[in-house]
């Protein structure tokens, strides 16, 4: 059965709001919710009272474990006011999802540690929504599903007063079947979330923080995560594509269906199937009979000639395909019609894990140049935003990163869509702990009941993404050095292999030695920091047949633009108040040399990796700063966000960005001078100047006089240092040479007094869809347009036209101004405003930045 390709177009757009294809209607359910948060339990429910009714939700994902049956009788909660249609929710907050209830503050929430970011994540949150069903939605032929991409946490959901189900792990995606309780006309949906204090080691956010979808399909349909696509043989002339389709029949009679899959190319420039494009391969119809209440798999295989392979840039191209699976059945009138259409994006590629070379993608060695990131998107928190995520990935790609570790939990599905289209390699991580916890209320409370379902659901959701190159089954788990680490690791890895025989597993170990049980069972040795202390060699000699990578490296800590003196002469040092740290103001030196005790500067990591060329690469801790874990200032009165990022929380690049860029994009002409050169209090004092570059030689000029032309000390070093420069106002100029020829130049100039605000925007045009974001950067500049590097003027943002200011930030981990505030002090001369268009608007939005005594600046953004 063929239908016009144009009907495919919508679904093929990653992140698109909604789409209908023949037989299937998937629409966003993000709009028009009401919300209330309670700091003490308002309803006397708890996960423990609901647990027996929620556990059966796991059944689809239990193979090893026993299936659950709900107790008979009415489930708890039906008498709670908030689930009733007649409850007056007029006093509750109106909002659209995704929503992070804690991000607006206030800071220093009672009971929430610095590690968790000091924001009010805890408490019970209730969400309500009116849901209209048509007569045909409830005519008995359809299944109506509610799909949550993620809800933080312990979700329980009622429809018209009936408990439908829930899912406790806040990072999991899950599906609920609304069909039994849906009625024509208005329905009331109520969602209860419950976050304990001390349930995380970082800022987990709170609320329905990812997208929610309503899916309407025939009772016989492709099951949830119901396709599995593998490419067991790949060459430039041909690829085998195997497609397993799980058909689910939730009707009450056996159904006979034809299952067909057609494969189309996705056009890279538009990220959709080109209009009128023909299928490049097809799997002929298979007819199956699916019993009432049963699932049945159909295995098909086809060959794609001259496949356009998926691989990471710059050497390869992230080409994608979409498999369009249709189910057809004979209807009451005797005609065969399409009853479901299901699209699966995938890539054709091979991966191999070579113990001596590292990762091979399509047979080519790809050095893993990765970063770890937590889930928050800075000042907008954890509420998933496509543009915020895309911007982070674009920044990382510009730096030369080709890999991401989703530390320490399953990501938003759209992050993987972006990774697929941009060509990132993803180490997709399931858990931060197993049965032994790290904080009082973390996942160890759920491990025994939920680990199998959580892991299987996660892998089924993500396994068709070509970007996913390996599964991480745990991060620094407490069991890593014990015999239990071996047995739990083996169980989890077996689960992963059974759901996905094509990928290896790793686990991030920071303490286990080579003789521990866990490294013995895990496919890929993942070392957090241990590599820096020489462990790569001892693991490699014990496990010559396993690939090894640095699952966490560096942990360099710094405050953007803040340089502290004296500067160590070492290439890596532990911070202290006599070097690298200003314990009074909670700043860390931006010379990018300082770390906590376990870490190493980037320079030290590069040297360690180059000493062990079998290492597949690294995932730096971290790409972006994140809320929480403000090491070393996590204690009372300390900071609110981390110092680990290569990029700060507002998205401004620290100097370190250019150090990684020099290593990871060595062919890009580069020279980056630090520090800034405006030190009226340091005239005549030693003020070391460093230059980050991949050049062979760099010459530094201080006020026009050469301070020396230095050769690059060795191939692992991208830092040129002139440590005895005495400060005098004026200018610094670095001239970098490659093969004896001038290759790159950088300059720093002493700034005068602050005179004006210089305003720029990341994109001149954004979509007027109520979601897209413009990032408006403000620099405090002198009369010549030079950034005043220590300016901290308070900047006030205002927006005119059909837009609104969502949040502001400056990248300072010690700034306790609430994120939604329109007034924001500059930090090291810079401030950021995040602006969104109003939904359904066109025209122009003007953003103005003002500060006392300075000329204002503004920028205009076009909505399209
Ligand atoms: C549902 O509709 C009723 C009646 O219009 C309204 O009072 C209530 O606020 C609505 N609730 C939500 C969550 O939108
Ligand atoms: C089976 O489902 C159909 C609607 O799909 C309904 O009309 C019929 O009554 C059901 N039969 C039984 C035995 O439940
Ligand atoms: C079909 O694929 C599934 C999943 O990969 C596999 O378990 C099963 O053995 C396959 N069946 C056949 C007949 O190939
Ligand atoms: C048969 O019914 C289906 C819907 O079930 C409809 O789409 C199709 O047009 C009908 N065919 C004829 C010939 O009436
Ligand atoms: C490379 O040079 C740096 C900086 O001088 C030094 O610290 C490091 O030990 C050198 N590495 C090797 C392998 O010589
Ligand atoms: C601006 O630049 C001019 C020319 O280089 C210089 O003379 C002047 O001092 C600069 N002004 C400031 C405020 O730095
Ligand atoms: C000032 O703004 C202009 C664009 O309006 C931009 O090109 C320039 O880089 C900005 N300067 C600074 C120091 O931000």
Describe this structure in words.
Residues 1-19 form the signal peptide. The structure is a single chain. This protein is mainly beta and 864 residues long. The protein has 5 domains: 11-218, Galactose-binding domain-like (Jelly Rolls, Sandwich); 220-346, Sandwich (Immunoglobulin-like), CATH 2.60.40; 357-557 and 597-626, Alpha-Beta Barrel (TIM Barrel), CATH 3.20.20.80; 672-749, Immunoglobulin-like; 756-863, Immunoglobulins (Immunoglobulin-like, Sandwich), CATH 2.60.40. 11% of the residues lie in helices and 36% in strands. α5 (483-499) links the parallel β25 and β26. α4 packs parallel to α5 (483-499). The longest helix has 17 residues, at 483-499. The model is unreliable at 1-18 (pLDDT under 50). One 2-acetamido-2-deoxy-beta-D-glucopyranose (NAG) binds at residues 228, 244, 297, 299.
Keywords:
hydrolase; binds 2-acetamido-2-deoxy-beta-D-glucopyranose; glycosidase; disordered N terminus; mainly beta; 864 residues; hydrolase activity, hydrolyzing O-glycosyl compounds; single chain; Glyco_hydro2_dom5; 49 strands; 36% strand; eight-stranded parallel barrel; 9 helices; six-stranded antiparallel beta sheet; Immunoglobulin-like; Jelly Rolls; Galactose-bd-like_sf; TIM Barrel
């Amino acid at each position: 059965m063929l239908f016009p390709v144009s009907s495919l177009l919508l679904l093929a757009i990653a992140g698109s709001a909604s789409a209908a294809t023949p037989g299937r209607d998937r629409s966003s359910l993000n709009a028009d919710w009401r919300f209330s948060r309670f700091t003490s339990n308002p309803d006397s429910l708890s996960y423990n009272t609901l647990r027996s009714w929620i556990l059966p939700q796991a059944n689809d994902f239990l193979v090893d474990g026993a299936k659950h049956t709900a107790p008979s009788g009415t489930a708890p909660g039906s008498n709670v006011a908030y689930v009733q249609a007649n409850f007056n929710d007029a006093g509750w907050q109106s909002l659209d999802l995704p929503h992070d209830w804690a991000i607006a503050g206030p800071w220093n929430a009672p009971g929430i540690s610095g590690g968790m970011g000091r924001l009010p994540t805890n408490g019970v949150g209730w969400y309500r929504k009116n849901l209209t069903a048509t007569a045909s939605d409830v005519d008995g032929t359809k299944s109506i599903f509610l799909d949550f991409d993620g809800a933080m946490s312990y979700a329980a959901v009622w429809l018209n007063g009936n408990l439908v189900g829930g899912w406790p792990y806040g990072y999991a995606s899950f599906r609920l079947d609304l069909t039994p309780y849906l009625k024509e006309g208005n329905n009331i949906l109520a969602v209860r979330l419950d976050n304990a204090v001390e349930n995380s080691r970082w800022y987990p956010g709170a609320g329905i923080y990812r997208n929610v979808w309503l899916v309407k399909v025939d009772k016989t349909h492709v099951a949830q995560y119901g396709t599995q696509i593998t490419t067991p043989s790949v060459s430039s002339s041909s690829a085998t594509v195997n497609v397993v389709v799980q058909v689910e029949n939730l009707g009450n009679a056996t159904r006979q269906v034809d299952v067909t899959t057609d494969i189309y190319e996705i056009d890279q420039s538009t990220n959709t199937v080109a209009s009128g494009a023909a299928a490049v391969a097809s799997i002929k119809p298979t007819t199956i009979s699916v019993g009432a209440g049963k699932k049945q798999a159909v295995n098909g295989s086809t060959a794609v000639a001259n496949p356009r392979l998926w691989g990471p840039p710059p050497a390869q191209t992230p080409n994608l395909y979409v498999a369009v699976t249709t189910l057809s059945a004979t209807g009451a009138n005797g005609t065969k019609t399409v009853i479901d259409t299901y699209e699966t994006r995938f890539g054709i590629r091979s991966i191999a894990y070579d113990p001596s070379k590292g990762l091979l993608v399509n047979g080519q060695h790809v050095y893993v140049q990765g970063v770890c990131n937590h889930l928050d998107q800075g000042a907008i928190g954890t509420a998933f935003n496509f543009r915020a995520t895309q911007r982070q990935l674009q920044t990382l790609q510009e730096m030369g990163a080709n890999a991401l570790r989703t530390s320490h939990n399953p990501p938003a599905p759209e992050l993987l869509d972006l990774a697929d289209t941009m060509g990132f390699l993803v180490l997709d991580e399931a858990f931060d702990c197993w049965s032994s916890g790290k904080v009082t209320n973390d996942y160890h409370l759920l491990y025994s009941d939920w680990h199998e379902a959580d892991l299987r659901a996660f892998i089924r959701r993500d396994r068709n993404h070509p970007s996913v190159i390996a599964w991480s089954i745990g991060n620094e788990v407490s069991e890593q050095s014990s015999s239990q680490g071996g047995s739990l690791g083996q169980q989890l890895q077996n689960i992963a292999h059974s759901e996905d025989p094509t990928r290896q597993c790793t686990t991030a170990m920071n303490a286990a030695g080579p003789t521990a049980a866990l490294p013995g069972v895990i496919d890929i040795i993942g070392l957090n920091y241990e590599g820096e202390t020489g462990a790569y060699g001892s693991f490699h000699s014990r496990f010559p047949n396993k690939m090894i990578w640095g699952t966490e490296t560096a942990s360099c800590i710094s405050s953007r633009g803040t340089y502290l003196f004296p500067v160590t002469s070492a290439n890596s040092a532990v911070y202290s108040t006599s070097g690298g740290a200003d314990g009074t103001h909670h700043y860390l030196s931006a010379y990018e040399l300082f770390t906590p005790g376990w870490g190493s500067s980037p320079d030290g990591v590069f040297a360690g990796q180059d000493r062990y060329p079998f290492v597949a690469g690294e995932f730096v801790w971290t790409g972006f700063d994140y809320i929480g874990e403000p090491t070393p200032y996590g204690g009372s009165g300390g900071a609110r966000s981390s110092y680990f990022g290569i990029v700060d929380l507002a998205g401004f690049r620290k100097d370190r960005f250019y150090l990684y860029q020099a290593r990871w994009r060595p062919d890009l002409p580069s020279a980056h001078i630090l520090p800034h050169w405006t030190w009226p209090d340091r005239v005549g004092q030693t003020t070391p100047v460093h230059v980050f570059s991949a050049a062979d030689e760099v010459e530094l000029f201080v006020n026009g006089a050469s301070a020396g032309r230095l050769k690059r000390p060795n191939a692992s070093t991208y830092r040129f240092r002139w440590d005895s420069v005495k400060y005098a106002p004026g200018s610094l100029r670095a001239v970098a040479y490659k093969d004896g020829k001038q290759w790159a130049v950088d300059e720093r100039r002493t700034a005068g007094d602050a005179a004006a605000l210089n305003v720029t925007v990341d994109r001149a045009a954004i979509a007027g869809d109520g979601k897209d974001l413009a990032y408006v950067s403000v620099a405090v500049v002198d009369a010549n347009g030079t950034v005043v590097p220590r300016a901290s003027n308070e900047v006030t943002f205002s927006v005119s036209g059909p837009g609104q200011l969502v949040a502001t930030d400056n990248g300072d981990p010690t700034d306790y101004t609430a994120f939604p505030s329109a007034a924001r002090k500059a930090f090291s001369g810079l401030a950021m405003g995040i602006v969104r268009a109003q939904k359904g608007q066109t025209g122009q939005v003007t953003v103005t930045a003002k500060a006392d005594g300075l000329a204002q600046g503004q920028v205009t953004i076009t909505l399209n």
